[in-house]
Every structure is written in C-alpha cells, then in structure tokens.
Amino acid sequence: MPRNKLKKYAEIDTFPNVIFRPDSLAGRWKNAFFKNNNPITLELGCGTGVLTLELARRYPERNYIGIDNKRARVWSGAKIALVDELVNVAFITTRIEALAEFFGPREVGEIWITFPDPYPKPSKSNKRLISPEFLQVYRNFITPGCVFHLKTDDEGLFDFIIDTLENEKAVIQHISKDTHNDRNMPDNVKIKTDYEQRHIEEGKSIKYVRFTLD
Prior knowledge:
Layout: H1 3-12, E1 18-19, H2 29-34, E2 40-44, H3 50-58, E3 63-68, H4 71-83, E4 89-93, E5 108-114, H5 132-139, E6 142-152, H6 155-167, E7 171-176, H7 194-201, E8 207-212
Parallel strand pairs: 1-4, 2-3, 2-5, 3-4, 5-6
Antiparallel strand pairs: 6-8, 7-8
Helix pairs in contact: 1-4
C-alpha cells in the first residue's frame, strides 16, 4: 500500500468527525454528535465529499453526513470539514448495506444518491442503490416524507430506477433527463460532484429524480 494512503489511514482514525462503528450514535446523532435538533441529510457514496461539504456550507441549518466505504476518499472531505470548521458535517465509513445499524428509526430526513454504480448486469440489479432491497434498508431510519435526490448519467440505470419507484409506490416529485438545462431545477441540485463535472465534459446529460417513499 502506498505510504501516502497509509498516512491517511492513520490520520483519519483520529478525526472526530469520522465514525467507524455503529454502536454509539444510532438514534442519538442530533443530541450526542451535532448538539442541535436540526434535520439530518445523508449523501450515499459521497467520495471526497464535494457535495456534502457544499450543501453544509449553503445550509447551516441542517446537519450533513457523507457515507462511503473508502477511507482514503473520506479522509479528503473530513479534513476539509475540520480545517473549515464545518460543525454540521460528519462522515461514516461503511457499506450502504449496513447503514441501518448507524441510525435509529425516523432519524434521517433527506438522502442524496449521486452517480451510484449502475451494475449493468441484470444478475447484479439487487446491488443498485435504488433497488427494492436498498429501499427497505432506508425505510428503517428515514422520517415520514424523507426526500430522496438521485443523479446519474446512465440511461439504463435511470430507467430501472423509475420502474422500481413506480413498482414500490414511491411518490415521484420531479424527473429530469437534462438536469443542467432544466429551468425548474433548484440550485442545490445543480451542485456538481467530481464525477458529474467529468460526465458533463464528456457531453453526457445528467438525469435526476426527486421522490419520497410515502
């Protein structure tokens, strides 16, 4: 393993804004970690935390938690949050499958899923983050009316997501096949992740859906 990555692994273990184990904060995030009663937003597969950090800067009245299973990626976002003294930001390193262990019932009020792995083989469809299996995971800890935002450049994945949401009786609030040319799109949806900027430069259109599971 490269020395730089080993250094990041050692340093991230000391970061107070990175959580590795689910046993201490489930159901207690607002009081025990953030020290406020503000609503909680998650970003699943946050990578280096570009979106998590920007949302936290724009909306200090909310708490933001970035989720990723790659420590080296999380290190980048967590380091910036500490340097910039963003007290409404935390990160969790875990697989999405285990996420219900980190939160109590009705604890999360908003979820962002940006450019998830499309898993194009039909045999892998249960690994897609908007599959019936994952929607059931989220139901363990979301509030009534929790708003989901999903962005992708993958047409096949997007079609699968819309079909899944319709089958699951989700309430679809907005669909766009070209997010950045959609005049009805709010500013927070137009924040670009690293992947998103790369896709746009390649001439790809960005698809977006906003929904609830009520």
